[in-house]
């Protein structure tokens, strides 16, 4: 592609992101629900036909046409037509596994993480669009429970387990998930009593750039965010303002648009419990965190920056979707549908997934300022 063609493509993607931000951010009229305002502004989540009732907490959109989702009952789905149809590419015999994270490199190559104690935690990889799968890791330590996974590039990635012997366990791959090794724990700070990660959205472990990675925690006295600048060898821990102090409370999801600017969301996942201060932001790579001035109004498990935006992001949870246009300082509910995780792609698309087979794509519909 010529430099002029690349410039035009980036301008188009930027306009899509701007259109999504503007339409979602428009205020509701008096007496109008956020969902109705979204419809009026011709933008919002558009559910896609998945043909399953699995709960999808793992989501990996590749681009505007290709996306992968992983969920309960060993279910893995893939679309290559923008969500108009989904193909069940679940690994054979995986019906007892709980997939909670998926990382995809293209329409053919993807890695999925199954969670659980002992051998229930596994990693599987496909190189042919899900036609065949290879198990590349099976946990044999009954004390370990793997929660999340992230990749820096097509070769280097990490997965994390809840603390073993008082420290989070980090699994590393250098060959795209074909093989894995447990990293030394010498550079990992001690975990707090009762502290763990949450396998709620595939976003308790996230990366930005070629070496930086962050880990969100809860359950302990405070909700912390751990950061490593050397692909998981050494870590520092920082307290976040998201409330913890209970096994159901803490920081659930993270999103970094670069090595510096990040957002954390969480709360209390129990339906009958409030979730005050469910959002926080950092502008220094996670060394310090500030509570959102107007946080999401309820528990949120997933968060993602809108494509090519410095200030707009979406947060999702069982009671709705919230939008920020100021980098996470203030949030406003724009949809009341249930989703567990959300992610956006570099070419201008955003996707969300959750319970009862729900997978949706954010779109500016006909009559709006563009298409997503």
Helix content percent band? under 10%
Low-confidence stretches: 1-15, 28-40, 367-372
Overall outline: globular
Task: Name the helix and strand elements from N-terminus to C-terminus, one letter apiece.
Answer: HHEEEEEEEEEEEEEEEEEEEEEEEEEEEE
Q: Summarize model confidence as the mean pLDDT.
A: 90
The description of the largest β-sheet is: 8 strands, antiparallel
How far the N terminus sits from the C terminus, by CA atoms, comes to 22 Å
How many H/I helical runs? 2
Q: How would you classify the helix and strand content by structural class?
A: mainly beta
Which percent range describes the beta-strand content?
A: 35-45%
Number of DSSP strand runs: 28
Q: Over all CA atoms, what is the radius of gyration? A: 19 Å
Describe this structure as you would to a colleague.
It is globular and about 45 Å long. The protein has helices spanning 3-25, 34-40, and strands at 43-47, 56-61, 67-71, 76-79, 87-88, 98-104, 110-117, 122-126, 134-138, 145-151, 157-164, 167-173, 181-182, 205-208, 212-216, 224-228, 236-239, 249-256, 262-268, 279-282, 290-291, 302-305, 313-317, 320-324, 332-335, 341-344, 350-353, 359-364. It contains two helices and 28 strands. It is mainly beta and 372 residues long. Strands 6, 7, 8, 9, 10, 11, 12 and 13 form an eight-stranded antiparallel beta sheet that branches. A four-stranded antiparallel beta sheet has the order 1-28-27-26. Helices cover 8% and strands 38% of the residues.
């Amino acid at each position: 592609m010529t430099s002029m063609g690349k410039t035009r493509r980036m301008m188009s993607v930027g306009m899509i992101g701007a259109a999504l931000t503007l339409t979602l951010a428009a205020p509701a009229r008096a007496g109008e629900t956020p969902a109705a305002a979204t419809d009026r502004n011709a933008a919002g989540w558009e559910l896609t036909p998945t043909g399953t009732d699995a709960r999808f907490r793992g989501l990996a959109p590749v681009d505007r046409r290709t996306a992968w989702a992983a969920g309960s009952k060993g279910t893995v789905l893939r679309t290559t037509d923008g969500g108009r149809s989904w193909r069940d590419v679940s690994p054979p015999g995986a019906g007892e596994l709980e997939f909670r994270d998926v990382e995809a490199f293209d329409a053919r190559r993807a890695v999925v993480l199954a969670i659980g104690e002992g051998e229930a935690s596994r990693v599987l990889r496909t190189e042919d669009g899900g036609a065949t799968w290879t198990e590349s890791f099976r946990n044999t330590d009954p004390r370990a429970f793997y929660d999340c996974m992230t990749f820096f590039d097509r070769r280097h990635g990490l997965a994390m387990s809840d603390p073993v012997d008082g420290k989070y366990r980090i699994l590393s791959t250098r060959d795209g998930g074909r093989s894995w090794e447990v990293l030394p724990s010498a550079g990992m700070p001690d975990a707090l009593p009762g502290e763990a990660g949450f396998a709620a959205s595939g976003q308790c472990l996230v990366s930005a750039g070629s070496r930086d990675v962050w880990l969100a925690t809860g359950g302990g006295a405070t909700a912390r965010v751990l950061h490593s600048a050397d692909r998981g060898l050494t870590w520092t821990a920082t307290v976040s303002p998201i409330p913890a102090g209970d096994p159901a409370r803490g920081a659930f999801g993270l999103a970094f648009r670069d090595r510096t600017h990040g957002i954390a969301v969480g709360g209390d996942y129990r339906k009958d419990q409030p979730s005050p201060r469910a959002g926080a932001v950092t502008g220094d790579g996670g060394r310090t965190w500030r509570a959102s001035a107007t946080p999401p109004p309820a528990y949120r498990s997933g968060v993602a920056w809108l494509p090519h935006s410095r200030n707009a992001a979406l947060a999702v949870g069982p009671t709705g979707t919230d939008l920020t246009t100021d980098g996470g300082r203030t949030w406003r509910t724009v949809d009341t549908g249930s989703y567990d995780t959300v992610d956006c792609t570099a070419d201008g698309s955003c996707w969300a997934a959750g319970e009862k087979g729900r997978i949706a794509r954010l779109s500016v519909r006909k009559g709006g300022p563009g298409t997503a």
